[in-house]
Amino acid sequence: MPDLDEYARRARAWLETATAALPPDPGLAAARAFMADLHDAGYSGITWPAEYGGQGLSAAEERVFQQAARDLVLPVGVFGIGLGMCGPTLLSIGTEEQKRRYIRPLLRGEEIWCQMFSEPGAGSDVASLQTRAVLDGDAWLVNGQKVWTSVAKQADFGLLIARTNPDVPKHQGITMFVVDMHDPGVTVRPLRDMTGESHFNEVYFDDVRIAADQVVGEVDGGWSAAVTTLLHERVSIGMGAARTERPASFEALSGAARERGLLANPLVRDRLVDLYLQERAFDLLSARMSQEVKAGIQPGARGSVVKLLLAELTLDSADAASEILGPGTVAHDDDGKIARALAWGPGMALGGGTNEIMRNIIGDRVLGLPREPQVDRTVPFRDLKVGTQAKEASK
Ligand SMILES: Cc1cc2nc3c(=O)[nH]c(=O)nc-3n(C[C@H](O)[C@H](O)[C@H](O)COP(=O)(O)OP(=O)(O)OC[C@H]3O[C@@H](n4cnc5c(N)ncnc54)[C@H](O)[C@@H]3O)c2cc1C
User: Fold this and answer.
1) Is the beta carbon of 347 within 6 A of some atom in ligand 1?
2) Relative to the CA of 365, which of 32, 210, 316, 322 has its CA 20 to 30 Å away?
3) Could you tell me the pLDDT band of residue 393, with boundaries at 50, 70 and 90?
4) Spatial distance between the Cα atoms of 174 and 130, rounded to a whole number of angstroms
5) Of the CATH numbers 2.40.110.10, 1.20.1050.10, 2.60.40.2470, 3.60.20.10, which one belongs to the domain with range 113-222?
6) Where is the Acyl-CoA dehydrogenase/oxidase N-terminal domain (predicted)?
7) Using a 6 Å cutoff on CB, does residue 149 contact ligand 1?
8) If 0-12 CB within 10 Å is exposed, 13-18 middle and 19+ buried, where does residue 339 land?
9) pLDDT tens for residues 239-255?
């Protein structure tokens, strides 16, 4: 225990100095420099294997560090997909060469990662994807389109899933690849969302050649690779959010209600108590899940519970904010932070799987209820009339 106390003391001291040195609104260069310093100081990839650039420490150190960082907003958002999804996927199923090549720069913020699963005709039903990868000599030739790809504009690499065999049922002919986002055949077009920012993008692939050694997992085994990434995604969205700023939190809104003399109003109090309970439930569940993950227990489908709770909390708190603050919410009170939270809220109920899909997963795989009927699970992909399937693909 004294070692851990010393570790906690050093972590707190380091974080205090490092966050005090950050500019008020850290841009990409400052965020990258922060990640490199975090890694040099021994706090990036705390439990990741040392041979690939992690710190090789235990869940106990990770817990202590998270505790020390709990109330701080660190400029690590742009690295979230790499740290929370792509890195863990490569560590689980990547080749030795892939781990040696990609993990260290990812942990140091030198290379940013994105995840390219969703397509215009394949979101909830992502197995209907149509981006094609065809073996051409010693490389794969990729053509198609992805959409809603977070941080693609900043990314150096991405995990892509593409159809490699249309003659088998849709879940069976998919392969995962590492894509170099700087390849001349990759075009990234930012999409503006309701916050006015361009968080996600469209990504087009025109004859992008991907070397055979960039396949992640098995050829045609991309569905199970994608499930690995998605499970990490849900847990990491849920747990990551435990540390992000909450402008429409119980604390912020009860303060705003007090200032406006609204605390005597029973409807407002009722709303606030509801919010408090939801926040406590989310914080406790995400803390428990985070400890389980760090102790090596995989939450599996239960990650969907945290993700669903977070989406509901985000929407409900934005709703409560608009009731309590009235028009002030959109009149950019509080530096526009609440207005931004209001605009960002609905995205939380979609990204990483929609609330309806989370409920389906919880029903099927956590509660053991009967599965939804799926009539297309055994039909070869090329015979399906899915989404926007192009004529050529179904020939
Ligand atoms: C902020 C944000 C970030 C994102 N980042 C990424 C990213 O980095 N990479 C990536 O690949 N994707 C990303 N996405 C895409 C996201 O994964 C999809 O939006 C999501 O899976 C839903 O797909 P869709 O938008 O095509 O909606 P659809 O699947 O068309 O769904 C439309 C509606 O139908 C409902 N529905 C669909 N199927 C069922 C069913 N079986 N039962 C009940 N209801 C159903 C849905 O719940 C939804 O309400 C992001 C999305 C957002 C909002």
Assistant:
1) yes
2) 316
3) very low
4) 10
5) 2.40.110.10
6) 31-110
7) yes
8) buried
9) 555 445 567 889 888 99
